[in-house]
Amino acid sequence: xxxxxxxxxxxxQPIGWIEVVCGSMxxxxxxxxxxxVRRSIIAGQDVQIFKPAIDTRYDEVNVVSHNKNKLTSIxxxxxxxxxDSCNDHRVIAVDEAQxxxxxxxxxxxELAEKGxxxxxxxxxxxxxxxxxxxxxxxxxVAEYITKLHAICMKCGGVASYSxxxxxxxxxxxxxxxxxxxxxxRKCFVDGRKKQKEV
Length: 198
Hints:
alpha/beta, 12 strands, 23% helix, 24% strand
């Protein structure tokens, strides 16, 4: 269970940090991001949430979890807009970080060095089981990492892979349960082998 760190009481010496919430599809990453953000809002902290403009699955503006919890966000085309949009906020949250460019890492580090709490959520692996976008670098510079797991939709085991049911080689293919399944390592590998045999 993630225990949120204490925010430094001296405003002249703010301490920032980066938190990464990662895992497969259907593991509750966005739900966890929303939970952390809501706690900050209740505490009276200034919060700003961002999402990639490409992700319009549930909503063009709001960050929405699979169980329909949502918070208003700012969609961004590119990470270079991030720094310009959050100077006055204490807590910065970024959902679906895997869809952003590599510049997101530098932007998050700069925000943390300015005393911001930066909360990131995203897929750590793509449909091939390979590191996804800027997520590996974000995990390496983060102070706190939470890896969530789903339930394998084939065997009921612990799932950490996002299996694409459609045989497509596109790196980014937006979809939900009609396109993806959470799978354990064995069921993921077995499924990939079957797809390659077709």
